[in-house]
Write a structure and sequence with these properties.
440 residues, 5-stranded antiparallel sheet, 3% helix
């Protein structure tokens, strides 16, 4: 495994270059810088160049087989970390071609330095030479590092989520085989904290396994208010609630929550009401449930045609009564739960040109969220921004669109890092990106 610091066509900006002649007939190069938007026309001779000044930090990581789902592990290094270099812990699951070749990977990314570049017109500091500035990128002591601990997983990992329960760090994985497993990753995390990574996969027995789903699934979420309570949904439209029991066991109610008529794609617990959760489905609906009711009567609120096709992902705002959803129609919609039953979103954004694959609200800013799509874009949005009256901006994008990040192929999932302000991690077939922009 390797991690490298690298920027390549990951940007909002581009530099358009044309060849020309000066008045004396000599070859010259006339450079015109323009903002490039995905889907825009690229003329022969044009070159896309990343606007490196738009990033405070940007790193890439490779893990061999692609990890199409991951989660951020909350650590004890403190909140609101802004001093570089940074360290973070993640857990991910692979999607290898062979079922027996899959692993769960606990990762420690560290020595993550600031990578913001100076504007080409900005003067160097008094005590900084151009060679010294260039050499910072080549300094081996400033190269990012990736340590891993791997253990075997039967089948590709559709989705994985982690949570701390008492003194243990647990992870739940949805396998393509139709089994949901719970793992104790405490020892792996402690080894990585001590700098003792292990890249050779080891065999580890799951703490608990459930094979009662009728099909594989993707929907899974740990409760943020009740330690150890888990929610899982499958492709046969069923949702199950898991209740923790002593000695590392769980009771899974065999009576599924049923109201959807097609595959359940995502589930989210309410951030403040212990018994309430939301779900979205291929049936185009978003539903809100009360787990205290009988499963066949627990659906309390629903919007039947939330999107024009499959609703792939949802995220419940921790600070405001909002849910954001993303669908196969490429639309992003924001729903006010106080007006949910009327079936109308309070905001709708059409920018992505392919299905939305992930959405997540900013952990502290109630108006900011991030999204990713099958169009190889990661976008950052702020609902608080409005278009200036009389603005003559020629760029045809929603004013709430803060930033477009590109460069990954087939982006599958993203998360904010709750302890490192403004930092986004995304995973794709091409690997991981870790970045922070000047926009958030």
């Amino acid at each position: 495994m390797e991690e490298e610091e690298h920027m390549e066509e990951n940007c909002e900006g581009s530099e358009l270059t044309d060849e020309g002649m000066d008045d004396e007939g000599n070859d010259t190069q006339i450079t015109e810088e323009k903002v490039f938007l995905p889907g825009g026309k690229i003329s022969p001779g044009d070159e896309l160049v990343c606007d490196e000044t738009a990033y405070v930090m940007y790193h890439q990581a490779q893990t061999g087989s692609p990890c199409l789902s991951f989660d951020v592990i909350r650590d004890n290094l403190g909140d609101n970390r802004v001093d570089f270099p940074l360290t973070m812990f993640l857990i991910a699951g692979t999607q290898a071609e062979r079922a027996l070749a899959n692993n769960i990977i606990v990762m420690k990314m560290h020595n993550l330095h600031k990578t913001i570049k100076k504007d080409k017109d900005e003067p160097l500091e008094d005590d900084e030479s151009e060679s010294e500035s260039d050499s910072d990128e080549e300094d081996p002591e400033k190269q990012p590092e990736l340590d891993c601990f791997l253990f075997k997983h039967i089948g590709g990992v559709n989705r994985i989520r982690t949570v701390a329960v008492d003194d243990k760090q647990l992870a739940a994985s949805w396998s393509e085989t139709g089994t949901v497993n719970i793992w104790n990753i405490t020892d792996a995390l402690q080894q990585l904290s001590r700098g003792e990574g292990e890249k050779k996969p080891k065999a580890q027995e799951a703490l608990f396994s459930f094979k009662g789903h009728q099909a594989e699934g993707f929907a899974i979420d740990w409760s943020p208010t009740c330690a150890g309570v888990l929610l899982t949904g499958d492709c046969k439209k069923n949702i199950h609630v898991w209740q923790p029991r002593p000695e590392g066991k769980w009771h899974v109610d065999q009576r599924p929550f049923t109201a959807h008529t097609a595959s359940v794609e995502d589930v989210q617990w309410s951030p403040n009401e212990a018994s309430v959760f939301a779900s979205c489905s291929v049936d185009k609906s978003i539903r809100v449930w009360d787990s205290r009711a009988a499963p066949n009567k627990a659906c309390m609120l629903s919007t039947e045609d939330a999107h024009s096709s499959d609703v792939n992902v949802i995220s419940w705002n921790r600070n405001e009564p909002f849910i954001v959803s993303g669908g196969d129609d490429g639309m992003l919609k924001v729903w006010d739960l106080r007006q949910f039953q009327n079936g109308k979103s309070v905001a709708t954004f059409k920018h992505h040109s392919a299905p939305i694959t992930s959405v997540e609200w900013h952990p502290t800013d109630g108006t900011v969220f991030a999204a990713s799509g099958a169009d190889d874009q990661v976008t950052l949005w702020d609902l608080a921004i409005e278009r200036d009256v009389g603005s003559s901006d020629d760029i045809d994008v929603p004013p709430q669109l803060l930033f477009i990040h590109q460069g990954q192929k087939d982006v599958k999932e993203l998360h904010w890092h709750a302890q490192i302000p403004g930092t986004v991690i995304s995973t794709a077939n091409s690997g991981f990106n870790v970045f922070r922009t000047i926009s958030v």
